[in-house]
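Researcher: We're teaching a course module on how sequence relates to structure. For the next exercise, students receive a sequence and then see the predicted structure as tokens, so they can try to spot secondary structure elements on their own. Here is the exercise chain.
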Amino acid sequence: MARAMVRPDRTDAVPRIFGHPASLFVLFFTEMWERFSYYGMRSLLVLFLIADSKHGGWGWSRAEALQLYGWYTGLVFFTPLIGGYIADRWLGSGNAVRAGGLIISAGHACLLLDTPAAFFLGLALIVSGTGLFKPNISVMVGQLYGANNEQLRDAGYTLFYMGVNSGAFFGTLLCGYLGETVSWHLGFGLAGLFMLLGTMQFYFAGGTLDSGGDRSTAQMAIEATAELPGRVVADRLQVVYLLSFFAIFFWFAYEQAGGAMTIFASAYADRVLDANSSKIFKIVNGLMSVVSALILSWVMGKLFAATGRRALWSNLLLGTCLGLVWMLLAWILLRTWTDPQLSVPATWFGVLPAFFIVLFAPALSRIWERYWNPDGPVKFGIGLLLLGGGFAVLAYGARGIPSGASTGTVGMAFLVVAYWLHTMGELCISPVGLSLISKLAPARLLGLMFGVWFLNAAIAIKLAGLAGSYIDRISSAWSMSTFFLIFAVIPALAGLVIMALNKWMAVKMHGVR
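Model: And here is the predicted structure for the students to work with:
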């Protein structure tokens, strides 16, 4: 039974934060804990598989680990097609998110058990739960914007994406550190704990969310006062398919972050610090962590002030989660500060994209909102070019690695710059794509179209795992620099093509930007 809730375009009744409905920030934090669990586990997966038994791993080859990584992450992005359809037809978005969160939590609980059967069951449950969770929380964000606040939609999705990457930042940092330095399976388990608490927070926040999340989009379409002409719907769906197709070129390269780039950071980057650089790293790492946690605490305070007792239990759970984050941060920073011989963990580089997004998403949201808001295909093109530029930086940095070398001493600055460029590209692709789909797709197909978006991401990620598994073969036959150049050229060419198609796509969008 749906809870009694207010519609988002009744601006006099809806509590607001930064001009957006407060419900956006309930979804912000719910998605944040799901991404905490996903990226926390993902940061450990390949390293756990290739670690030898003396270090608690399974001793797989790089190629085997990257192929499993490709299958797992690809399926995580494939199942939203099914989950979106189920929500559209029967469950409704809100119920799908609740069910998905519980299934993901059960999957992480299985990963705590150190047996192959439990491990693969856990992966299967995470994949299934993500299929229900991922597309439908994106649908709920779109339901917060109507005729009276449509101009805020792109900015709203960018802020929501800040929540996505806040979870990625802290999941990679906390689970990655715990897994690499204490126990792989404790790292996996920590991811599951936050997923469970996040799901409970979402459940108890029901009274602050729009009731559309508890109805199927088929019901919502029936309730709509008018349907668009069939030609307009068909044209807009063509654009959705085309945007989803070009996203393949982005994710195919970007998702090397969890595979080939992690291996590169582990084996080829010079991560050993001397006394001076160790002190600098500790200060920078501490500032990154503390500033990110302070930003989230500030946003949480705004949500508490806006929702008050209407979401008391949800707010208490959210406060508990952030309290745990602060405690774990203090423990990690204390341990690293007192470590006399520190090397930078390979998983640490994985926190950089999320940190950059937390840092730059609000500024970019403001740029889109007030100063420069190009058409969606132009934003896509910019994002693909930036991604290609990041891999060009890595190719340049890897130029001194001999063919076939299994280790190297590439400066960490190349990885930092590459991740920054990738992050700025991601901000031009992912939140923009989600926002455009919510505007272009008809209500009766909204969950399914988000599923199509994630299906193409699944194809890209499977290809990413397959391509990444050739890192040793390509670097032996040619060079490591050649390997990264492949991922520089392909996205850059795709970016130029979609920018050239901008005028044609604008016609097909019939007024949507």
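Model: If you want an answer key for the exercise: The chain is about 75% helix and 0% strand. Confidence is low (pLDDT under 50) at residues 1-12, 211-226.
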